[in-house]
UniProtKB/TrEMBL annotation:
It comes from Micromonospora rosaria. Pfam families: FCD, GntR. One of its GO terms (molecular function) is DNA binding. This is GntR family transcriptional regulator. It comes from the Bacteria. Transmembrane segments: none annotated. InterPro entries: GntR_C, TF_FadR/GntR_C, Tscrpt_reg_HTH_GntR, WH-like_DNA-bd_sf, WH_DNA-bd_sf. Keywords: DNA-binding, Transcription, Transcription regulation. Residues 14-82 form the HTH gntR-type domain.
Length: 232
């Protein structure tokens, strides 16, 4: 049977794979498949995406190679990162013998991101952003007063992430997400094995500055606890 003249052309195989990779990545970025969660099975993906098994297999393999997905024998395929940059940053932190130098670099990068994020957040925060910041700050304080180190590290990272989200800059948020592992590493290293009083940093003033809509004060508060040591 002769196909109709208005039939949609079938894209070349290479392009189908690239389109499938883009579709998978988009679903990950939108949070449909969160980090730590398992993606649908291969047959389910074939049905959902409307492509063949080989195309799905190649797309998944590409994202595994990029460090976004991880195949676990007998369990399935899981999301381990939201983008390709995060594993690269993580490897620089964990694999390099000059760990202390790398940590100093992470703090410098954090300062570049977080100071500008705080400045923007003070201008653009919404009532929903302020509620998220208050919730993250309360969780951070509760973890600190409870002496729960691992929980505090996660809560502190969540607060900084909430500040970046309140900046309403998509590219900044994506770049910041890529240093998530490094962020937690610097917080954990600063805290050590216990939450000593001398290591406590008040982030309430940062949240207050954002709430007040004061960009200069918000930037100052965000940068104060990330200042390099004298001579650094």
């Amino acid at each position: 049977m002769t196909p109709s003249v208005d039939s949609a052309p079938v894209p070349p195989r290479g392009r189908r794979v690239q389109q499938t990779i883009a579709s998978l990545r988009d679903r990950i970025l939108r949070g449909e498949w969160p980090v730590g969660g398992r993606i649908p099975t291969e047959p389910q993906l074939v049905t959902a995406l409307g492509v063949g098994r080989n195309t799905v297999r190649e797309a998944v393999r590409a994202l595994v190679h990029a460090g976004v997905l991880e195949c676990r024998q007998g369990s399935g395929t899981y999301v381990v990162s939201t983008d390709e940059l995060a594993p690269v940053v993580a490897r620089r932190i964990t694999d390099d013998q000059r760990a202390e130098l790398r940590m100093a670099e992470v703090v410098e990068v954090r300062r570049a991101f977080e100071v500008e994020a705080a400045r923007l957040a003070a201008r653009r925060r919404t009532p929903e952003d302020l509620a998220a910041l208050d919730g993250a700050l309360a969780a951070r304080e509760a973890a600190w007063h409870g002496g729960r180190v691992a929980e505090f590290v996660e809560a502190d990272a969540a607060l900084h992430t909430a500040v970046v989200a309140a900046a309403h800059n998509g590219m900044l948020a994506e770049l910041y997400a890529s240093v998530g592992t490094a962020l937690r590493s610097t917080i954990a290293r600063t805290m050590g094995d216990e939450l000593a009083p001398e290591r406590y940093v008040d982030h309430g003033r940062l949240v207050d500055a954002i709430r007040a809509g004061d960009p200069a004060r918000a930037a100052r508060e965000a940068g104060a606890f990330l200042e390099p040591p004298p001579g650094g």
